Amino acid sequence: MADQASGGPLIRFEEVVKKFGDNVVLNGLNLDINAGERVTLIGPSGSGKTTILRLLMTLERINGGRIWVGGEPFSHMDKGGKLVPASESYLRAKRKRIGMVFQQFNLFPNMSVRKNITEGPVHTLGVGKDEADQRAEELLEMVGLSDKIDAHPTQLSGGQQQRVAIARALAMRPEILLLDEVTSALDPELVAGVLDVLRDIARSTDITMLCVTHEMGFARDVSHRVFMFDEGRIAEEGPPEQLFGDPQEERTKTFLKAVL
Ligand code: ADP
After folding, report:
1. What Gene Ontology terms describe what this protein does at the molecular function level (predicted)?
2. pLDDT tens digits along 208-219
3. What is the pTM of this model?
């Protein structure tokens, strides 16, 4: 059993099966991530990377196996081996440990930047308004947008919106930060600013990070481990200097040749 208290992984995928209709996206995936680790998932489109993040965020349900966070399962098997999903309230509690930033920012368009960041802490965590405000100011300073606290998302560039989305995720003080291709929707000149903010977070916090990205330079800089995915399987994994510098698998070599 994955028991974090006795030194087990923070995140464990155990024989996880995920299907969309007849399409088997993950077929018995095993994956362990330790607290404080920064892990990057790379690989071709459609290989199941985003699905892994969405399963962790409980935006999708598994069809088999088990996912554990902090030694506690998201679902369990009954005596007959049938998968029993956890209750919505249990999953909601689990979800509080996890923050996610999406490709398309997903800010609340009718709320100011301040409100976007304080809404979750105040309404979901019960943090006082003054404390939430102060934290929003600190986070905006960290992402370089102190002067935008009263702006609305439509007044911001894509890169600025994404930096607000990162601040919003961190305002919930998650243990785990999931980043799903967070620069893919940005104009090229805005990508570096967002990646710099993430590099800073990686340097200055011990948050566990799980990133899906096509930015190989970023993956190399921030990751402790890189997983190369292909057709729902881990084709290869290793520290970035090994995976990028001396890949062992043919699939990794052809993928890297195409993207680098
Ligand atoms: P990646 O992130 O590696 O590009 P995804 O996890 O997004 O891959 O997708 C893996 C597979 O699952 C693809 O074949 C995709 O079409 C399918 N898929 C993902 N989400 C859904 C969904 N909501 N409904 C149906 N199929 C989906």
Report:
1. ABC-type amino acid transporter activity; ATP binding; ATP hydrolysis activity
2. 999 999 999 999
3. 0.93
